[in-house]
Design goal:
The chain contains eleven helices and 17 strands. It is α/β, with parallel strands linked by helices and 436 residues long.
Length: 436
């Protein structure tokens, strides 16, 4: 089996410009512009406590004489239905509760379309990279294409209300129903970003370019999600989860454990819907799962939250095991524990690669690293002589890797286009366990 590795780095200057231009076009020139404008105005009035003007704007927006033409604004009918449904749930009806409900409904629909554009944007980059490394093989071998996006790549800009273009401004969390649509591949596609139509991650992993013996596994970075309503204590916890796609479906998610101080308030239990896995009840140090993740996994008929993904590749009798870790969670090896995996995938945003590769388990034969900002793009085989001083042995561990060689190899050397990295060393990958 040959293992090909592709990463995307949206923080590269050229790609960042593309994202900002796309965001501006979405908010100012697309069919979603009226949504963004009403969201911005309601937010401004609510923030200043001017509920009278906010309610007047609500009356204008919902005035029966104001005709929203679904042929021109395809979201109009869905928005009206959502507003009616959400208002019918209210226990207390007054101008403030109505305005808040309408604001959240407008924001939810606007988020759906923005996330659809963002998904299509990354699909376009990934598809280009796949076309450029899917050379029709004459070797008759199986070719496995692993694609990794960095942490935070799917984030709401918040710019509909702040009008500041850039990935780090505003509230980055999507409402829970919007995240669910990404996982299921059901985001709206009736406001296309380009003339070529809209693509989804599910569709992308169901394609093999017409070649036999090819499979795509996509580690789709992370997406930030949260509930629309605050908890009783006024907190609004969020979820930083990483979905994994292959063969046309989402096969599971992993959730960042937020163990590092630099991750901010989210590392505190009171800011998250936390549930310990069943392993903790057995006295085993384990990981936390948000209620959101557990609900999504159950609804999709997927395995419990787990950092180990067992993925069927080609017609192999046994699955290939991938360990997925997010950013500085990596410094706590107990998260993965003693469970073995042949491939270790680490995704992050703004984390120096030095001092972080040492905890890769001894069972791992390939290490795939993707960071959205720093020197973090590499696909390494355990026996690759580039990364070890002296002659590497098959039983060597990841402790003696040459960090300088790793950084030198990964930093901008192999960008085939700005922000698109294709690892030039295709790994010959034949884990003995899969040959049984």
């Amino acid at each position: 089996m040959k293992l090909h590795y592709i990463t995307i780095q949206p923080a590269v200057k050229e790609m960042r410009k593309e994202l900002r231009a796309m965001e501006e076009s979405f908010l100012e020139n697309s069919l979603c512009q009226p949504l963004a404008e009403y969201e911005r105005q309601l937010y401004t009035y609510m923030k200043s406590g001017n509920w009278d003007k906010a309610f007047m704007l609500y009356n204008e927006f919902t005035d029966p004489s104001k005709q929203w033409n679904p042929a021109v604004l395809p979201w109009a009918g869905r928005l009206k239905s959502l507003i009616d449904r959400e208002i019918s749930k209210l226990e207390i009806i007054n101008p403030q509760t109505i305005v808040k409900t309408v604001y959240k409904s407008i924001k939810e629909i606007r988020q759906e379309y923005w996330l659809a554009w963002l998904e299509d944007f990354f699909c376009e980059k990934i598809e280009w990279a796949l076309r450029n490394c899917m050379q029709r093989p004459a070797d008759g071998k199986e070719h496995l294409y692993c694609v990794a996006l960095p942490e935070f790549c799917f984030a709401d800009s918040g710019n509909a209300v702040l009008k500041k273009y850039g990935a780090w401004s505003g509230n980055r969390a999507f409402y829970k129903p919007v995240v669910t649509k990404l996982l299921h591949g059901t985001l709206p596609r009736d406001v296309p970003r380009t003339s070529s139509g809209m693509k989804t991650l599910k569709m992308l992993t169901n394609q093999s370019g017409g070649y036999a013996f090819m499979q795509v596994i996509l580690f789709a970075g992370t997406i930030i999600g949260r509930n629309k309503e605050q908890q009783d204590d006024g907190k609004s916890p969020y979820y930083n989860m990483a979905p994994v796609f292959t063969r046309g479906r989402c096969i599971g998610v992993w959730e960042k454990q937020e163990i590092s101080d630099i991750d901010g308030k989210s590392r505190l239990v009171k800011h998250r819907h936390v549930m310990w896995s069943e392993l903790r009840a057995q006295g085993i140090e384990a990981y936390t799962a948000s209620v959101f993740s557990r609900q999504e996994l159950q609804a999709m008929g997927l395995q419990e939250l787990n950092p180990i993904f067992e993925i069927q590749v080609f017609q192999r009798r046994l699955p290939l095991r991938f360990a997925l870790c997010i950013c500085r969670d990596y410094i706590e090896p107990r998260i993965i524990g003693c469970r073995p995996a042949e491939v270790y995938v680490l995704i992050s945003y703004g984390m120096h690669i030095e001092n972080h590769i040492q905890e890769v388990g001894n069972a791992v034969e390939a290490f795939l690293y993707c960071d959205g900002m720093y020197k973090g793009h590499a696909g390494i085989h355990l026996g690759d002589p580039v990364f070890w001083s002296g002659k590497p042995e098959r039983d060597c561990t990841w402790w003696n890797i040459d960090q300088n060689a790793l950084s030198n190899n990964s930093y901008r050397n192999n960008y085939v286009r700005p922000g698109i990295y294709i690892e030039p060393n295709v790994l010959e990958f034949e884990p003995k366990r899969l040959q049984l």
